[in-house]
Specification:
The longest helix is centred in the N-terminal third of the chain and has 23 residues. The chain contains seven helices and no strands. This is General transcription factor II-I repeat domain-containing protein 2.
């Protein structure tokens, strides 16, 4: 939905002006458009993660892998945005550099990373059991088995 708004921003602004509706001026504000681009890019990444977490024949271990990989991506994106690199954010990259507030971009990704960290705290203790399940031949037989917490 947000990608369509970005794609049709001129048409939406024209419609809002014709109907004398509030918000038409936002579409001529470069900083507002840059924030819309950030929100659109972040939502696209979240939608991709959502699709990976759905469907038949997906195990909880796969879900955990997708979530932890996404958390690593968030840390990467945080560092890249702080350095002014927009490789993973094509809509922000299309904005004029002066319109992009790097502190806002980093702040959004940081708050998303912190939210992920707080939401999945109950799953983290299960990770050793996931490792035993996903790669049993990598498990050290001299170490005790992790406790079974999901029974």
């Amino acid at each position: 939905m947000l990608s369509r708004v970005c794609h049709l921003q001129q048409e939406i602004a024209t419609f809002l002006r014709q109907k004398n509706l509030p918000g038409a001026d936002n579409f001529s504000n470069p900083q507002w458009l840059a924030r819309l681009a950030l929100l659109t890019d972040i939502t696209t990444h979240l939608n991709d993660l959502n699709v990976k977490l759905q469907g038949k024949n997906i195990l909880v271990t796969d879900m955990y892998s997708h979530i932890t990989a996404f958390e690593v991506k968030l840390r990467l994106w945080e560092a890249q945005l702080a350095a002014g690199q927009f490789k993973h954010f094509p809509r922000i990259a299309a904005c004029a550099p002066d319109d992009v507030d790097l502190n806002t971009c980093v702040g959004v990704v940081t708050s998303l990373r912190e939210e992920f960290a707080s939401r999945f705290t109950g799953v983290r203790p299960l990770a050793p059991g996931f490792k035993l399940f996903t790669s049993p031949f990598d498990f050290n037989v001299d170490e005790p088995l992790p406790p079974c917490r999901w029974s």
